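Aim 2, interim progress: modelling of the alpha-D-glucopyranose-bound target.
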Amino acid sequence: MKTLDKVVYQIYPKSFCDADGDGWGDIRGVIGKLDYIQKLGVDFIWFNPMTISPQNDNGYDVEDYCQIDARYGTMEDVEELIEEAGKRGIRIMFDMVFNHTSTHHAWFQKAIAGDPVYKDYYIFKKGKGEGVPPNNWQSKFGGPAWEYVPQLDEWYLHLFDVSQADLNWENPRVCEECADIVNFWYEKGIRGFRFDVINLISKGCFADDPNLFDGRQYYTDGPHVHEYLKRLNALSFGRYDDVMTVGEMGNTTIENCVQYAGADTGELDSVFSFHHLKVDYKDGNKWTLMPFDFMKLKELLFSWQTGMQEAGATNALFFNNHDQPRAISRFGNDKQYRKESGKMLAVVNMMMRGIPYVYYGEEIGLPNADFDSITQYRDVESLNRYAIMKEEGAAEEEILAILNAKSRDNGRTPMPWSDDENCGFTSGTPWLPLAKRAGEITVEKDLADPDGIFAAYKKLIALRHEMSIIQDGSFIPLLQDHPSVFAFARQWKEESMIVLCNFYAEETTVHAETEGYTLLYGNYEDVIVSDEMKLRPYESVVLYRKDVEAE
Ligand code: GLC
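Predicted structure of the complex, ligand included:
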């Protein structure tokens, strides 16, 4: 399937729309909003996991891969969703969590009951001594990455929460089980697959981390990961030509991603990489406060764009997802220039080379949660981090300020639809409070505004669908050293595009060779195209030229 012409809308199902009043979003809620999503013009909807789960990590702790959690609905609802979306030209992408299962999963339960077949599905090791885990690796959600099982006198590995036990991909049965799950969902009509933290599945060795860190150098892009993906591909999605895949690749490299998402490597269609979303981590530590480093953001996006394109490999394009604070609060200006900066970020994301993702709420410029108390948070990572920072002696106020900027719950607050109770999300009690400014910013209000952010997304998506240059054109970095403007060109046959985006509230002027160019899109009125382009706060312009051969 051609992928560079696709645009994906991501729904965090728990927070999108609650049809039955239990405070959780559900599938019927989404079905009721399909017309809204269709208006945006996207090709796929990616759903975070909705299968049975104890919900310690909101569904990424899977208890049963092939049954829908009743709180989201039923298998019939999924079938209706696929059908109704299909009528609107939209395909459904599901999330496959294959690095780990919930400890409630039947495989794990059999494993700890001593069944050797299922024990080999997981990573059990002897400790180094009484009460001492096999190595010093840390879980990504805080604390040791190993948990002791007394009846086995062994420890199991969990790179994430203690309730998320890592699968043992060295056992070929694990890959076969995962392939069966993909095939099951394909049969149901699912046409997109997102593979959760899939570059962590090959654990190279189990040595102590000499830096007393989490051990990531031993399992990130591990020694057999490409082999495992090729096998999964051959046994499942690679058998169909109407499927799109994307892998989530934490801490990865361009060299590996060129393999993961290369044109003919037999692995995946595309990758999410995250380096560009760590430009506000002080010394690489997420739990700090720092304004984002614009030059670094630019350098990273440029190197990934050009590095992937040289190899014919494909990036997913995104500034938001369910693990990130809202980009508009992070890289834009969610107060005075909310609309301008929301649209500017949309331009960057939609006009680069790759597959753009729009995360629910992004299209109306929804900002961070702005919670006042730890009692409002639900995310396991945030709650663990709160406890760790408390223990280290940090003041409550400081911790809350950090969570306010960095917690994943910032990106998970319920969708504000209207002026109704709970902004029309639920008639019950929302599982997570709405963002503080949710009443001020709603879908209803944004849609009623001809100059709203939704309208900009719609327009940019339509352009992407219409124009080969946006899909297939090459990406050329521009103004590499400019301290406030993100600029690039796209080139396709006799067509050229120049994209100029001011990332700051200060006006600036840039030099560009604009002869023959006209304005394709701008987030301000009255744009004058010239070689000295004046860019107002968060202004972004897309210029286009088509050369006609002389007769
Ligand atoms: C991915 C998911 C995240 C989850 C983690 C463990 O990073 O996006 O939400 O917590 O994997 O499954």
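The first strand starts at residue 8 and ends at 11. Residues 57, 60, 97, 160, 196-197, 248, 322-323 surround alpha-D-glucopyranose (CB under 6 Å).
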